[in-house]
Amino acid sequence: MSEEPPSTSSGKSSMSMQSITSLIDESLFSAAKVLEAIGLGFALRRGTWQVATAILRQVLKSVFNLKIQGRENIPVSNAAIICTKNSSGVYPLLACAAVTESQNRTLFQAFDIEFFKIPGIRSLLNTIESIEITNGEISEPNRDLIAKKLADGDLVGMTLENVKRADDSEQIVLNKSMIEIAVQANVPIIPIAIPNAEDVINIKTRKVSLNQRLSITIHEPYVAHLDGKNADNCLEELKNIIAE
């Protein structure tokens, strides 16, 4: 009796889904380029940011007991670096939610490269000019982008820790470049502590604990780096603040 060939329906479904998401990415990218060319790029970025963060905040409020303290520490105007714990996991997303819940301002947030590999999310992050962290480091073009945003008086989201990957292993590295950028731009660093973030939302294990209290504390602006304190000491102090 001849054997029937193995079913390829799951493979076709996977291929079809990849094709659809790739098409969406390409379409959004093309549309963004057209709007940029006719002078509507800023409106697109602003509108996309407002819609995305409004949805994010609503979701967080619906499924968690979200509490944000220190809202007054997000400046109404002027540049600053917003600092959370890590560029991977849920921290960058929570930083975006905390800033918009406190002040109606756009945050140009740094995300680990793994976020940019997710179809659909990639287009969204590119549209709102998010910053890519590759192998634990910020590229020179992205450093230039950060410098420009800070010079324009914008808020830039960076992280205390980045992830460096090699041979299927991960290493956490402290983000010394954040201190260098803050000194060069002469801007404060505003630490955001979310001590139970990974207990409530763990992206790696895909575990979400519903109806839990999610506490976000926005601390007062940190300025020791502007007074000449060395980068290592600043990072250690920021680490202690964020751990609180």
Notes on the structure:
This protein has 244 residues and is α/β, with parallel strands linked by helices. It has one domain. Helices cover 45% and strands 22% of the residues. The chain is built from eight helices and ten strands. It has helices at residues 9-37, 41-63, 91-102, 121-127, 140-151, 176-185, 197-200, 231-243; strands spanning 65-69, 80-86, 107-112, 131-133, 155-166, 169-174, 189-193, 201-202, 207-208, 213-218. The strands form two sheets. Strands 1, 2, 3, 4, 5, 6, 7 and 10 form an eight-stranded mixed beta sheet that branches. A hairpin with a 2-residue loop joins strand 5 (155-166) and strand 6. Helix 1 runs parallel beside helix 4 (121-127) and helix 2 crosses helix 3 (91-102). The longest helix has 29 residues, at 9-37. The radius of gyration is 20 Å and the shape is globular. The chain starts with 8 loop residues before the first helix and ends with a helix.
